[in-house]
UniProtKB/TrEMBL annotation:
It comes from the Bacteria. InterPro entries: RNA_pol_sigma-70-like, RNA_pol_sigma-70_dom, RNA_pol_sigma70_r2, RNA_pol_sigma70_r4_t2, RNA_pol_sigma_r2, RNA_pol_sigma_r3/r4-like, WH-like_DNA-bd_sf. The lineage of its organism: Bacteria, Pseudomonadati, Bacteroidota, Bacteroidia, Bacteroidales. Belongs to the sigma-70 factor family. ECF subfamily. SUPFAM superfamilies: Sigma2 domain of RNA polymerase sigma factors, Sigma3 and sigma4 domains of RNA polymerase sigma factors. One of its GO terms (biological process) is DNA-templated transcription initiation. This is RNA polymerase sigma factor.
């Protein structure tokens, strides 16, 4: 009997969920897909629902979480991470003009300044520029988060100071 009541509640809330899905996606097809995915997830997790609680709120939460997870997946899939040793793809010249040689010279100067820094500043800065988050750097180097942030900040200041004539 409990299952019958659950399915009845699920059918009753479908129209409202579809409107909510459309607000999230602004696309009819995606809204229908989101509604279907939400309904399937609810049916799979029927045993986790506590009877006599806010069923509609539970469903909205499931839908919102699915939408957020799908959005993050799309963003993650569209993000290109250059994992070549010399960051070849990030350093591709946009055009072969004088400007690109100037940019290459500036990049060479930046590398020179960073490479002349002590190891404790150079490594966190290089990791940060490679896309690591502050917390990841702190964990990998076994340093306090504040220390990592201040070392990266110091390196940026040093770069600005050393390269002020190259702007």
């Amino acid at each position: 009997m409990k299952s019958l009541s659950f399915r009845k509640d699920l059918v009753e809330v479908q129209d409202e969920l579809l409107r909510f899905a459309y607000k999230l996606t602004t696309d009819r097809e995606e809204a229908n897909d989101l509604l279907q995915e939400t309904s399937l997830k609810a049916l799979d997790n029927e045993d986790k629902y506590t009877p006599d609680t806010n069923f509609k709120g539970w469903m909205y939460t499931i839908m919102r979480n699915i939408f957020i997870n799908n959005y993050r997946k799309v963003v993650r899939d569209q993000t290109f991470v250059d994992q070549t040793d010399n960051l070849y793809h990030l350093n591709l010249p946009q055009d072969a003009s004088v400007e690109s040689t100037d940019r290459a010279y500036d990049l060479k100067e930046m590398h020179r300044v960073v490479n002349n820094l002590p190891k404790e500043y150079r490594i966190p800065f290089s990791m940060h520029m490679s896309g690591f988050k502050y917390r990841e750097i702190a964990d990998k180097l076994e340093l306090p988060l504040g220390t990592v942030k201040s070392r990266i900040f110091f390196t940026r200041q040093k770069l600005q100071e050393e390269l002020k004539d190259f702007r």
